[in-house]
Amino acid sequence: MKIEQIYTGCLAQGAYYIESKGEVAIIDPLREVTPYIKKADQDKAKIKYIFETHFHADFVSGHVTLSKLTGAPIIYGPTATPTFDAVVAEDNQVFQLGEITITALHTPGHTMESTTYLLKDKTGKDYAIFSGDTLFLGDVGRPDLAQKATNMTQEDLAGLLFDSLRNKIMPLADDVIVYPAHGAGSACGKNLSKQTVGVLGEQKKTNYALRANMTKDEFIKEVTDGLLPPPQYFPLNVKMNKEGYDDIEDVIERGTKPLTPKEFETIATNTGAVVLDVRHQDEFIKGHIPRSIFIGIDGGFAPWVGALIADVNQPILLVADTGREEETIIRLSRVGFDNTLGYLEGGFEAWKNEGFEYDTISSISAKNLKEELQKENLPIFDVRKEGEFASEHVENAHHTPLDYLNDYLTEFPENKPFYVHCAGGYRSVIAASILKSRGIHNLVDISGGFAAIKDAGIPVTNYVCPSTLK
Question: Residues with Cβ < 8 Å from 271, sequence gap 6 or more?
Answer without folding.
Answer: 315, 341
